[in-house]
Amino acid sequence: MAAIGMPPHILALFAARKPLDPFPAFKSKHPRRYIGLSDYVKKFELTPPPAPIPFESPRQRKQRIKRTKLLQHLQQQQQLVELYKPLQDKNIQGDPFCTLFIGKLSYDTTEKKLKREFEVYGQIKRIKIITNKEGKSRGYAFIEYFNDKDMKEAYKKGDGTKIDNKRILVDVERARTVPGWLPRRLGGGRGPPRGAGKNQPDLSTLVAQINNPNNNNNNNNNINKDKERDKEKDREREKERDRDRDRDRERERERDRDRDRDRHRDRDRGGDRGDRRRRSRSRSREKRRDDRDRDRRR
Question: Which interval of the chain is the signal sequence (predicted)?
Answer without folding.
Answer: none
